Amino acid sequence: MITEKPITIEDIRADLIQLGLKPGMTLLVHSSLKSVGGWIVGGAEAVIMAIEDVLGAEGTLVMPTHSADLTDPSTWKNPPADPKWWQLIRDSMPPFDKDFTVSSYVGKIPEVFRRQTGVLRSGHPHVSFAARGPHAEWITGSHPLSYSLGEESPLAKLYDLGAYVLMLGTGYENNTSFHLSEYRADWEGKKKETIYAPTRREGNRSIWEEFEDVNFTSDDFEQIGIEYERNYPDGYIRGNVQNSRCVLAPQRLMVDYAVKWMETNRKS
């Protein structure tokens, strides 16, 4: 018998309002369903509905729906793939499909969100984003292969819209907006890389496309977040959504700070 009080959409909604969410916001959410804790009536769907209730019809909700499994097996490390299977894996891997490809390493909430009626997903095979609301089509409509988190990406469009970022039970290491800073900053060790992804299928074989990107990394994102909060005490709000420790912050301020931080502190 379950004796604890269930967590409802209304409970989550009230906490989000207390945290600072407002109607009409454009909001990028990074999330951990497990962090909310307890028994959530409706699970991930309830969390999504609560956020959408607060944002209202004029708000736009965005989440990462990345598919890192569609990378070249020669780059795999945890665990690595035996080189003798690399070509077999390349030939057999299903290509990216906006409607079909499952998101990975971003949690359950974004995977449920991307399947909601009215949600649009950008077309990048590795780092797509899903969005629902008045700005969804503009945010997701064009997402070039090369420089995937840079000036033509959904992240840059969110910056232009003055979006906010909600880290719902996640840390700054998951704050993808800092990747936009990597493109804008001139940091030591920055270089171009050649990336590959399966983008279509011909017969029994997947076709891989080659494109360029920068060698982005999230290894120092947590430190950037710590120092951002120290330098901008009014640039974020901390609070709880049930058991989930959360941060709400303006994306533009975080991105601009991270550009300066990387140029000063990153060493090759």
Please tell me about this protein's structure.
The chain is of the alpha+beta class and 268 residues long. It is built from ten helices and nine strands. It has helices spanning 9-19, 33-36, 43-55, 86-92, 108-113, 136-140, 154-161, 177-184, 221-231, 251-265, and strands spanning 26-31, 60-64, 120-121, 129-132, 164-168, 192-202, 205-214, 237-241, 244-250. A seven-stranded mixed beta sheet has the order 3-4-2-1-5-9-8, with helices on both faces. A two-stranded antiparallel ribbon has the order 6-7. Strand 8 and strand 9 (244-250) form a beta hairpin. The termini are far apart. The model has no long low-confidence stretch (mean pLDDT 96).
Give a quick set of tags describing it.
single chain, 268 residues, alpha+beta, two-stranded antiparallel ribbon, 33% helix
Q: What can be said about this structure in brief?
A:
With 268 residues, the chain is an alpha+beta fold. The protein is built from ten helices and nine strands. Helix 1 packs across helix 3 (43-55) and helix 8 (177-184) packs across helix 10.
